[in-house]
Specification:
- This protein is an all-alpha fold.
- Helices cover 92% and strands 0% of the residues.
- It has two helices and no strands.
- Helix 1 packs antiparallel against helix 2.
Length: 112
């Protein structure tokens, strides 16, 4: 008899625990839906923020390229020996800015 009463108690605890768990999962599903909505809204806000930033990055890369071209031209006219090194440095900086802007676009924007 004691053996069966222990099994009954165990089954009763199992049923009560399962009912409580199911009630909590229904409440969590509502919370998950709200969380998904917040994440979607935040993603849209980030995309709206990064679009102008990539445009600014392209403009900065163009300005750096023009400034670098003038610096390289002035070094060539002055007869400096490190013109090639300077050209590689300025070109590398422009390529870095362009690559960074392209990576930002690839990571944060979805194709329409």
């Amino acid at each position: 008899m004691k053996r069966f009463s222990g099994i009954r108690r165990g089954l009763l605890l199992l049923v009560l625990a399962t009912g409580t768990t199911l009630a909590q999962s229904v409440d969590q599903t509502k919370g998950i839906g709200a969380g998904v909505q917040v994440l979607t809204q935040t993603t849209k806000q980030l995309q709206d923020y990064f679009r102008p930033m990539t445009t600014v990055m392209y403009v900065i890369a163009a300005i750096v390229g023009i400034f670098g071209a003038f610096r390289i031209y002035s070094k060539m006219q002055a007869g400096d020996q490190d013109v090639q090194k300077s050209a590689v440095n300025w070109g590398g900086s422009v390529l870095f800015l362009l690559a960074f802007a392209a990576i930002l676009e690839a990571v944060f924007f979805q194709a329409p």
